[in-house]
Amino acid sequence: MATERTLxxxxxxxTRRNLTGKVNACFEEAGLRIVAQKRLHLTQAQAEAFxxxxxxxxxxxxxxAFMISGPVVVQxxxxxxxxxxxxxxxxxxxxxxxxxGTIRKLFAESIEANSVHGSDSAENAAAEIAFFFxxxxxxG
Length: 140
Ligand code: IDP
Ligand code: MG
What we know:
Blueprint: E1 3-10, H1 12-16, H2 20-29, E2 33-40, H3 44-50, H4 60-67, E3 72-80, H5 82-90, H6 103-107, E4 116-118, H7 122-132
Antiparallel strand pairs: 1-3, 1-4, 2-3
Bound molecules: inosine-5'-diphosphate and magnesium ion.
């Protein structure tokens, strides 16, 4: 499998509980490299744009409010099959359904406050990385 990059976000529920390092350890222990990272406090417009694909979903307004409720850490993860590997490390959207040992099983508070975002395809990963990072900020 080829080396890939994927966009990860450590969400406000996790930054609030000071879990950035523990979440990052999960990525590194699974063989993903953090090749870019920054801490941001998203504006409403930024969160709405990032989650634009979910605009029609019932949870959209709450999701945006949650994502701007505190700082996030946005990052680019690199490794073999990074998109699928990160989805595995994260676990299912609903922590109640997430496999043991996954980030969401270990740390998530709810289906909304589920600690991490990860791109779901190579195509979306490229768009999401470009949303937050300039090429010069990514150091493989
Ligand atoms: P994913 O993050 O596992 O890819 P998506 O379906 O893309 O899940 O949903 C994006 C985010 O929206 C989730 O991570 C979660 O924070 C929130 N979300 C998804 N489904 C629900 C729901 O049923 N209620 C509340 N929030 C939800
Ligand atoms: Mg998704």
